[in-house]
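hey can u check if this looks right to u? its 390 residues, i copy pasted from the old doc so theres a chance i mangled smth
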Amino acid sequence: MKKSHKLACLLLLASFSTLFSVSAQDKITVTPIGRIHVDGAFYLPSKDGFSDGAALPEIRAGVRAQYQKWMARVEIGYSYGKIGMKDVYIQRGLGDKNYLRLGYFIPQFGIRGGGSASYKPGMLPQISESFFRTMTRKIGFGYTRYNPSYFLSATAFVGGRSLTLNATEQGKVSVGGSVRGVWHPFTEPGSILHVGGSVSYETASHTRLINDAGDEEASAGFRTFSVSFPTTVSKVPMLEADVTDAVGDWKLSPELTLSKDRFALESQFYYMKVPRHNGIPSYHAVGTFGMVRCLLFGDNKYRYSEAEGALALPSPKTLELVAGYDYTNADSHAAGIDGGISNDWNLTLNYYINKYMIARLRYSYTDVRNSSVCERRGVNIIQARLQFVF
């Protein structure tokens, strides 16, 4: 085992022992948390980077500690030979339905934007969701409030690279903020209406440079957006946009959720603009996805989670069918960037075994064209997953 891996394991064990010892003295409630994803995939055609096989794309372990109105969460993840920090934050409840959060977490943006990727009804994040980087963790300070009528969350943050690169290495730290608001006048089981939207802005990323005079300075601003084909077993680049001379990026995303008895619809649209320096045309990109969900047996009505501003997880022993479509256009001819255009049709079966385990089977057909990192192609992907989350 590598030294870094040993150190991470020792730190995790130390956190467990420390928290449990404090629990005995100060009545802190400590709960172990973790997850394991076991995936398998089959591709047609199986070539040019796609190889049938299996993977453990997500292994996590951590603890959640609760003391009166305070809560702390620490998670370490292991994926493809790399260890990294996941959620690491402190939270202070201000009442039954609002709280402050400080640390390293995913700011709320879009449907289940701040929630766990393990509970995506389509098994994987949408292509547009991943390309627009709405699921990236950042060091930030946020406030969330929810009630039977609305959900509101606002976060101020520094760039996502700040966990792995110090401010000196970055040259100039990116900063930003995001807001998500949802109005849900109907949240009775089987009768749900949810209309909302998110907006965010983040300044450009930089790197540290040494100029001809030997002085330190920050590089020109840049932004990179990319996504691979929707599979965890093989990693094949699909869309990519490298935006130079960037000032920052604006993202706007309206969302809609409807449910009637055992049927539900979830849809979201993305628009992004990256203004640039020196009179260079701005970069624009758009994307959208829609999912139709149906409870085949088990639960006969969808329920709503006010705390997440999204549909709740179905009950154990429920089988669900999800049909989805995603369109992402990363091309911006005015900006001179061939990011690519993709279409993804997918069908997923989810069986909620118990409150800890879900079995999933997913088929998707994904095509891409006009991409600078991938030739024009279409791929059929069949995937299965067994996940354990506690």
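The chain has three helices and 22 strands.
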